[in-house]
Amino acid sequence: MNKKAQTMGLAILSAVAVFVCGFMFINFLMPEVTVFRTSLSCTSVDTISDGTKLLCLFGDAAVPYVILGIVSLGLGAITARLKS
């Protein structure tokens, strides 16, 4: 078996480990985002100001940014193993 085939298996296992750990982190992040949204009353249209709207937007974007970071780390683990 050549070295690339062994590296591919290790790269996939590393990427799966990154995905699992990353998505476990999201389970801890979601309640904090919910608390953030309720404390700023992001769902209330009448009492929200412009600065609070911006903070609510950044708070809502936290989870997609974390998911994109997890995917990029996983793909980085795969490509780093394949390039060597």
Structural description of this entry:
With 84 residues, the chain is mainly α. It has one domain. 83% of the residues lie in helices and 0% in strands. It contains three helices and no strands. Helix 1 runs antiparallel to helix 3. The radius of gyration is 19 Å and the shape is elongated.
What structural keywords apply?
84 residues, mainly alpha
Short description:
With 84 residues, the protein is mainly alpha-helical.
Tally of discrete structural domains? 1
The structure class reads mainly alpha
Spatial gap, N to C terminus: 16 Å
Largest sheet: none
* Strands, count: 0
Q: What's the rounded overall pLDDT mean? A: 83
Count every helix, treating DSSP H or I runs of 4 or more residues as helices.
Answer: 3
Elements, N to C (H/E) = HHH
Q: What are the low-pLDDT stretches, counting only 5+ consecutive residues below 50? A: none
The proportion of residues in beta strands is under 5%
Share of residues in helices = over 70%
Task: Supply Rg.
Answer: 19 Å
Assign an overall shape. Answer: elongated
In terms of topology, how is this protein built?
Layout: H1 3-39, H2 50-60, H3 62-83
Helix pairs in contact: 1-3
